[in-house]
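Project outcomes to date are best conveyed with an example. Our students and postdoctoral researchers have been running inverse folding experiments weekly, and each run begins with a structure described purely in tokens. The record below, which covers 329 residues, was selected by the lab manager from last quarter's runs and is presented without edits.
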């Protein structure tokens, strides 16, 4: 016969087991959702690359950004209305510098990303963008006063070495004689510069996102704003060049659809992070990179070198290792 204390302990055990079961269920669903999201990220990345071949005669970078981010902001606004979020205006934000770094920086990020895609292989751009988490950590040390660890210095060396190995393969693809001609050398320089700006500015945007989260600016609001500012800036350049891509409605719709897909990717990622530790998802974040590299090789007939695989393994391997064995503050 159980006494009252035994009965109470039994009930507490049952409640704890039920809570743990619910938690495991949430984590499982979050993990599955995150894997699915990586597949959508793959589609989004392939879409961007395909603009060069599908709409070569009409393609214009600013018109692409314009229609794409209309899709981003409109979808974000629908979510804001649906969830009855109390919209916060820029004048109410304290961290205005970080607000504009993140929102204006998004336009520069997509501009430099598309520029690098026009010069380098999709696989090269995707793999090198894997350095973003490391750069976010480095900037967090400077601006958020987070603790520095020796492993970060090792990561810089490892990722830089892997990046150089991959970039050197772009030189192989450009070589038509013993040396690069001036145009090819310039293209590679522009591609490297574009990727460098993209990676660093994207990392600064991540730091800015942390500041804005402290102001309780929801992911929906943040996404709406960086879409809005990209629309504003790209519209300005479209007006100057008189290029909105309206001569081909499918071009505009394709870019608009890419914006919707981009928003859904960000939204599903945010939902996943709310229900499972980010460190558990770290290895999965590179699933889309691997799929995009393979898809680029198959769909766009891009060459893949052994040193690409070695360089990618160094970059992705370190980021995964750092995510799983994250140093304690």
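After processing, the design step wrote out the following sequence:
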């Amino acid at each position: 016969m159980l006494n009252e204390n035994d009965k109470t302990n039994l009930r507490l055990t049952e409640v704890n087991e039920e809570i743990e079961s619910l938690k495991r269920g949430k984590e499982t669903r979050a993990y599955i959702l995150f894997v699915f999201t990586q597949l959508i990220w793959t589609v989004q990345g392939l879409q961007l690359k395909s603009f060069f071949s599908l709409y070569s005669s009409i393609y214009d970078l600013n018109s692409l950004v314009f229609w794409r981010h209309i899709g981003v902001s409109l979808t974000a606004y629908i979510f804001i209305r649906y969830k009855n979020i109390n919209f916060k205006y820029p004048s109410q934000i304290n961290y205005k510098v970080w607000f504009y770094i993140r929102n204006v920086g998004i336009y520069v990020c997509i501009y430099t990303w598309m520029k690098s895609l026009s010069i380098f292989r999709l696989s090269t751009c995707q793999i090198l963008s894997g350095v973003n988490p490391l750069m976010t950590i480095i900037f967090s040390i400077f601006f958020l006063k987070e603790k520095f660890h020796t492993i970060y210095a090792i990561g810089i060396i490892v990722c830089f070495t892997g990046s150089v190995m991959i970039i050197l393969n772009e030189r192989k693809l450009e070589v038509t004689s013993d040396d690069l001609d001036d145009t090819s050398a310039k293209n590679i320089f522009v591609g490297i510069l574009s990727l460098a700006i993209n990676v660093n500015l994207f990392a600064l945007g991540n730091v800015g996102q942390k500041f804005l989260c402290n102001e309780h600016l929801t992911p929906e609001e943040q996404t709406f704003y960086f879409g809005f500012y990209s629309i504003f800036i790209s519209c300005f350049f479209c007006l100057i060049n008189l290029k909105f891509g309206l001569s081909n409605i499918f071009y505009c719709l394709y870019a608009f659809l890419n914006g919707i897909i981009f928003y859904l990717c960000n939204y599903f990622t945010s939902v996943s992070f709310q229900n499972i530790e980010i460190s558990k998802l770290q290895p999965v974040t590179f699933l889309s990179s691997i799929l995009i590299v393979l898809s680029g090789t198959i769909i766009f007939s891009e060459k893949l070198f052994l040193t690409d695989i070695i360089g990618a393994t160094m970059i992705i391997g370190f980021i995964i290792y750092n995510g799983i064995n994250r140093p304690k503050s």
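The longest helix spans residues 4-54. Residues 59-323 form one domain. The training component of this project remains on track.
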